Amino acid sequence: MLSIILVSCLAMAAAVPAPKDLFHAECSVKWTLSESCESVQEKIVNQMMAWDNEDCGTKPGDNKPNGQKCLYKHTGNDGMVTSGTHTTPIHRYIDDLTFTFVPGTGCLVDAHSISETLSLLDYGTNYCNLFNLMDGSGLVNDPDFSEETNDNICTQRSSADCEIF
């Protein structure tokens, strides 16, 4: 009986995807949209550039964020891959962002955010780094919008509050 339980536990553990890096909080998410990938990529890049500023709503002495729709940097495109960074307004931690656009009947957006600094937990910040760009650019209103992610591949996704982070 004990061996059956042990084998079952091992099988379940093997079925759960392991994070790529155990020492850096990260998030992988896939979105499906009806728009062309060229249009989606342009909107993500434009939103990064629109939020490339210090206007975070954070005031000197604040010890928690009041929103993080700021401090984005578009670092480049390589074909259908867009890269950038997001810096947190309080502690100035930097997260690396990658959006890969895969054309099909619409567009599959394969997005990833990973913290540069040592961080095991992030209160869903890496998820919000990505989602805020999708939301700010209006892409969440696409009629075919769907999202695929979970806490196993996106640190603390279920507790993310993107109005703060």
Secondary-structure element order, N to C: HEHEEEEHE
Q: Mind telling me the C-alpha Rg?
A: 17 Å
Pick out the low-confidence regions: 1-19
The CATH architecture category of the domain at 37-55 and 73-165 equals 2-Layer Sandwich
Task: Describe the model.
By secondary structure, the chain is of the alpha+beta class. The protein has a domain at 37-55 and 73-165: 2-Layer Sandwich (TATA-Binding Protein). It is 24% helix and 27% strand. The protein has a six-stranded antiparallel beta sheet. It is globular and about 50 Å long. The protein starts with a helix and ends in a 17-residue tail after the last strand. The model is unreliable at 1-19 (pLDDT under 50).
How would you concisely characterize the structure shown here?
Helix content is 24%, strand content 27%. The chain is an alpha+beta fold and 165 residues long.
